[in-house]
Write a structure and sequence with these properties.
Number of strands of chain B: 20
Largest interface: A-B, 38 and 43 residues
CATH topology of the largest domain in chain B: Naphthalene 1,2-dioxygenase Alpha Subunit, Chain A, domain 1
Number of helices of chain B: 10
Shape of chain A: globular
CATH architecture of chain A: Roll
Largest sheet of chain A: 7 strands, mixed
Number of helices of chain A: 3
Strand content of chain A: 35-45%
CATH superfamily of the largest domain in chain B: Naphthalene 1,2-dioxygenase Alpha Subunit, Chain A, domain 1
Oligomer: heterodimer
Pfam families (chain A): Ring_hydroxyl_B
CATH architecture of the largest domain in chain B: Alpha-Beta Complex
Number of domains of chain B: 2
Number of domains of chain A: 1
Keywords (chain A): Dioxygenase, Oxidoreductase
Distance between the termini of chain A: 29 Å
Number of strands of chain A: 8
Helix content of chain A: 10-25%
Bound molecules: FE2/S2 (inorganic) cluster, fe (ii) ion
InterPro entries (chain A): NTF2-like_dom_sf, Rng_hydr_dOase-bsu
Shape of chain B: globular
Structural class of chain A: alpha+beta
CATH topology of chain A: Nuclear Transport Factor 2, Chain: A
Largest sheet of chain B: 8 strands, antiparallel
Order of helices and strands of chain A: HEHEHEEEEEE
CATH class of chain A: Alpha Beta
Order of helices and strands of chain B: HEHEEEEEEEEEEHEHHHEEHEEEEHHEHE
CATH class of the largest domain in chain B: Alpha Beta
GO molecular function (chain A): dioxygenase activity
Structural class of chain B: alpha+beta
Strand content of chain B: 25-35%
Protein name (chain A): Anthranilate 1,2-dioxygenase
Distance between the termini of chain B: 19 Å
Chain lengths: 159, 426
């Protein structure tokens, strides 16, 4: 096993930590800023990935589509009131080429609704591609491959 | 309940239902036998999911686990996933291929063929002459419980009822016409999503037939200034009342539907503008102007085309207040990669994260929560009248299809419900 460049490792882990906290704090408008303009964000069931099937519950292939998601969430969509809590593992850097880094990290998103019980809402892994420019990382693509096939009620807030 | 009252019940139309039907475990149990295992055809899956000999997928009829298998002669079989020995689950995977066509229970290794017939029992004669089954033991009497299976245009259905009419007759000409529309050419499966709602299956069944809530609960279109009022809608019911289809088309002579997104943003007065219009892009691919087609086939499936999304939603009942919705997304077999990507983009609109539909999951749960302890209190389903008509049109401000659902449901439930469960117009 090779040890990833500690600088790259730090950039990726820092982005992941900030990303989780951003969503958990409800700062949804800041969330698209973790991505480059021409990005891909998808949330897809592991059973689909394992069977080579492409259907995702969220599939956004531009930053504009991420913004549209947030606007819809704020103004249109109706869903159970809740808090999210992301627990994200240290990333495993799987490759790097020039400015591009690929990495994977496990996550668990806990959800707390108005009844006050905290439930494991969605567990899975991020499969990511980052662009490193001027010492900061941005997501070129993030695929959330979820194990929790049975989505409780609905999935409104990004993972 | 005397027989006179029952005849009355079958002829009249329900306009109010006791909330206990969403909570009562006895009613739930009666539904399993009268509805799901009764005189109905239940949707089990798509032919395209099991294209090759030996392919299988697990499915459900109500709460009963069943397995769908394609046998060696291309015939599709379905059987209850419960070993005839001690009741163990026989097939433990969600889907796969059983190349040798044998399904072996892991517990004592009873082996069944793809039809569900018992073909092997270890140590049937015992060991060294000791033990074993009596010489009268006949494996033919110990097969898996088999369902009758029929399919229509690639949608596979099963029934437990031996006297059930043919599937085509159960669906009827109106429902078949709309199924033909979606399955006009071969399809391919794009994937699955499963949604688990803490609510009764009938709340979801009403929801998918409820054309009244569309523009009121789902605020995505108005939020982005997309006005759908200019479009034509129509609804049709099958004879029994419990199947329905609702469609929305572009009006004749209106702007081309492909510029739907542009139109949206032109009409937009407020601050909210869709950043990426590809989300809503519609590429007509069926020879009509229909952009939305939602078809509820009693008792357990919804077939949809919304923009370029195609899907079945299978209803699985896990208890009076637990319902799973299994979304199977598909496209056409000849889709190229770009068309598939377009469908994936459109899929943002539907499913558990659907921008125009996710609210349905919440509506089901709100009704479940709100009706706890409400036995003897009734809902009110008189929007658009107190009758059930085969055709309804005006923008769907009508609960005709919801009344149709209850009409068909009550006929199947018969004596299982007390006469006070339903109110009807005098
Ligand atoms: S339970 Fe299946 S073989 Fe015994
Ligand atoms: Fe809806």
């Amino acid at each position: 096993m090779t040890i990833a460049d500690p600088v790259l490792q730090g950039l990726v882990d820092s982005l992941n930590a900030a990303y989780g906290l951003c969503l958990d704090d409800g700062r949804l408008e800041e969330w698209p800023e973790f991505f480059v303009e021409d990005c891909l964000y998808q949330v897809i069931a592991r059973e689909n990935v394992d069977n080579g099937l492409p259907a995702a519950v969220m599939y956004c292939d531009s930053k504009g589509m991420l913004v549209d998601r947030v606007v819809a969430l704020r103004h249109a969509n109706v869903f159970p009131e809740h808090f999210s809590r992301h627990l994200i593992s240290r990333a495993v850097v799987t490759g790097s080429d020039g400015n591009t880094v690929t990495a994977e990290a496990s996550y668990a998103v806990l959800q707390t609704r108005n009844d006050g019980e905290t439930r494991i809402y969605n567990a899975g892994k991020y499969v990511d591609r980052f662009l490193i420019t001027d010492g900061t990382a941005k997501l070129v693509s993030r695929t959330c491959v979820y194990d929790t096939h049975r989505i409780a009620t609905l999935l409104a807030t990004p993972i | 309940m005397n027989s006179h009252v029952r005849v009355e019940a079958q002829r009249s139309i329900p306009t109010a239902i006791d909330y206990k039907v969403y909570h009562d475990p006895e009613i739930f149990a009666a539904e399993q036998s009268n509805v799901f295992k009764g005189r109905t055809w239940c949707y089990l899956g798509l032919e395209a999911e099991i294209p090759n000999a030996g392919d299988f997928r697990t499915s459900h009829v109500g709460e009963t686990p069943v397995v769908l298998v394609r046998g060696q002669e291309d015939k599709v079989f379905a059987w209850v996933n419960r070993c005839a020995h001690k009741g163990a689950t026989v097939c433990r995977s969600l889907r796969g291929n059983q190349a040798d066509g044998a399904f072996v229970c892991v517990y004592h290794q009873w082996a069944y063929d793809s039809e569900g017939t018992l073909v092997g029992v270890p140590f049937r004669r015992g060991m060294k002459g000791v033990g074993g089954y009596d010489k009268d033991f006949n494996p033919a009497n110990h097969s898996l419980e088999k369902l009758r299976v029929e399919s229509y245009k690639g949608m596979i259905f099963g029934t437990f009822s031996s006297e059930m009419e043919a599937l085509e007759d159960f669906l009827g000409p109106v429902m078949r016409k709309y199924i033909d529309r979606v399955f006009h050419r071969p399809i391919k499966v794009l994937g699955y999503a499963r949604q688990y709602m803490s609510g009764n299956w009938k709340l979801y069944s009403e929801n998918s037939r409820d054309s009244y809530h569309g523009a009121l609960l789902h605020l995505f279109y108005p939020t982005f200034g997309i006005y759908r009022q200019s479009q034509d809608s129509s609804g049709e019911l099958a004879e029994q009342g419990f199947h329905n289809v609702f469609t929305v088309s572009k009006p004749k002579g209106d702007i081309d539907y492909t510029s739907f997104g542009d139109e949206a943003n032109r009409e937009m007065q407020g601050a909210t503008k869709l950043q990426d219009e590809r989300l809503l892009q519609f590429r007509p691919e069926i020879d009509d102007d229909v952009g939305l087609h939602i078809q509820s086939l009693f008792p357990n499936v919804v077939l949809q085309q919304i923009q370029n999304t195609l899907a079945t939603r299978q209803i699985v009942t896990h208890g009076p207040d637990k319902t799973e919705l299994v979304w199977t997304y598909f496209g056409y077999a000849d889709d190229n990669e770009e068309t598939t990507r377009h469908r994936l983009r459109n899929l943002n609109l539907v499913g558990p994260s659907g921008l125009i539909s996710m609210e349905d999951g919440e509506a089901v749960e709100l009704c479940q929560q709100g009706t706890i302890g409400a036995e003897g209190k009734y809902n009110f389903i008189e929007m658009g009248g107190d009758d059930v008509r085969e055709y309804y049109a005006p923008m769907g401000m009508d609960e005709n299809a919801v009344r149709g659902f209850w009409k068909g449901y009550l006929e199947l439930m018969g004596d299982a419900l007390s006469s006070s469960t339903v109110e009807r117009p005098a």
